[in-house]
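Hey, can you fold this one?
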Amino acid sequence: MRPIQNIYCVGRNYRLHAEELGNAVPTSPMIFSKPTHAVIVANGQTISLPRNSGEIHYEAELVLHIGKSYQQGISAEELIDQISLGIDFTLRDVQSKLKSKGHPWLLAKGFPNAAVLTDSREYPGIEALQETNFALQKNGERVQQGNIQEMIFDFQTIVDFIGTNFGLGEGDVIYTGTPAGVGKVENGDHLQLVWGDEEWGSFTVEM
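Sure. Predicted structure:
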């Protein structure tokens, strides 16, 4: 996997996920970012997460890897060259307190190991991606499953919004949003990121 430059994340991009947390469904992309120090590749190891910070929730996502600089009018198919699966870990209690104060979410989203990624694969095109579900399994139980057809904002809308407002270039990645089924992790949980029936990455949680 090449070095990552910027990490963009799309919040509330699956209607059922927004509803399960009691959030309004957005009418335009809701973008936040994570520092590159948050990235860790899932390769079967033990991954440490913060202790004594309240509940930590998993959010499994399809992740886009950008292969060239954004220019107005460019298609998402031209920009994206790889994909992977990822987990956007969230300190949910910390996030709730920040939201109640109107503060940014960075403390809840940007801690070390908060941006899990599998090794990347070649981008097969949007039609091929629509034919396969991605999923997260916790201790052998499938807890999340999604398909990009369920996204509120499609790839083109996402890259246009990010590219226009923040810039988008080679080495950037985009977490495209999580489907319903988010929940907490506990010490010793074993998580597997699955594409169709194929495991792309796994790890064990240490807290």
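The mean pLDDT is 94. Let me know if you want another pass with a different chain boundary.
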